[in-house]
Amino acid sequence: MAIPPRLMADPTKGGAVFIIGMHIHDWARATDWLPPFLAMPRMMRELERSRDLGMVSARYCLWGRTVAIVQYWKSFEHLERYARNDEYEHRPAWFECYRAASKTGSTVGIFHETYVVAPGATESLYFNMPPDFGLTGVTGAIPVHARRETAHERLHASGEPGPQA
Ligand code: HEM
Domains plus CATH for the chain? Predict the structure, then answer.
């Protein structure tokens, strides 16, 4: 069987993947979840308007009572700089979120997870996907060749240039 051309994220380049989400325990208590929920589109607009802040792309997910966004960043340092800077939408929303919860108790959960993309620590594969999808938007894409056929080989391919397809 002929295997069609596939791409992988360039394993020699770095970046960061950030998952941010909210879990709504009680839909009826909109005063709990609406303010942090509405803070999110303000942040996303800010990050999309100013690409030099470092967010490259984002995908929205919804499962049950949880809404989340998977974001691809140029680096952890960009992400941290954005999150901790008083000039941007995030820092005031962070404080307001905890201030409101400590006053009234809260039925909204907030979570985030950060994954630093370092050489030799990630593996990816894209077949028939739009250009610059996911991690390839950060690292660029390279062809999957014979020595990167399996996930194991791709994971350990860091730095190895490999033949062009
Ligand atoms: C674009 C969306 C967002 C990004 C990129 C983001 C990023 C981050 C990052 C990187 C931190 C860790 C900061 C540090 O400890 O140095 C953080 C913390 C936090 N964020 Fe966000 N965040 C986002 C959306 C939100 C939203 C919508 C809320 C709720 C209003 C929120 C509330 C918080 C809170 C409360 C913390 C502090 C957690 C703790 O250390 O106790 N974030 N965020």
Answer: 15-116 (3.30.70.100)
Cα–Cα distance measured from residue 48 to residue 35, given in angstroms and rounded to the nearest whole number: 21
**Do residues 25 and 75 make contact, with C-beta atoms less than 8 angstroms apart?**
no
Indicate which atom in ligand 1 lies nearest the CA of residue 95.
Answer: 35
**Nearest ligand 1 atom to alpha carbon 58:** 1
Q: Return the pLDDT at 56.
A: 98
The residue whose CB lies within 8 Å of the most ligand 1 atoms, and thus the one to mutate among 112, 114, 115, is 112
Predicted local confidence at residue 120, as pLDDT: 83
Q: How confident is the model at residue 163 (pLDDT cuts 50, 70, 90)?
A: very low
